[in-house]
Amino acid sequence: MKGKFITFEGTEGSGKTSVIKKVKLHYEDLGYKVLTTREPGGINISEQIRSILLDKKNIEMDAKTEALLFAAARRQHLVEKIIPALEAGYMVLCDRFVDSSLIYQGHARDIGIDKVYDINYFAIEEALPDLTIFVDVRPEVGLNRVFSTPNREVNRLDLENLEFHKKIYQGYLSLVKKYDRIKKVNGENCLDEVTKETIELIDKII
To answer: What is the pTM of this model?
Structure first.
């Protein structure tokens, strides 16, 4: 494909969304075509699935149901929005992708990373990111940001206990070691520093 597919991962409150906005502006200023999007969501069908997944009332949701819904949202998002943008030469910056499912459902929900990867391989086939940025923020720090930021959406996953979020964090650290495409930046630094570190990593692949 002509474009570059760059995904951003992290615990709740890691600041991914803020970094993505600044990275987008940087590369647009340089003349790149940049598309930002998010998971679950990004397009109409996937946003509808997102509303089910993150609704605080849906506390009875089964772990495998959760994994399958994420994969379904991902498939539609990929074929309707991400792949056409890459083929048109865009740099696609996506807030979460397949690694979120590997960690949240595979690792933290104890389904198994390999099983969740198999579900998602059916959904994404060979469409893996060129680069994944893990914004490294300890869960205690991230959750404090979530609950102290005015007007920030607090969803069903935010409300999980601290042990769940610690498990998420440890899972991400293990993925950084497993996959060369995943690079870590220190998300506890100031936003400008995190953005600078991220841009340096993206520059290496473009």
So the answer is: 0.91
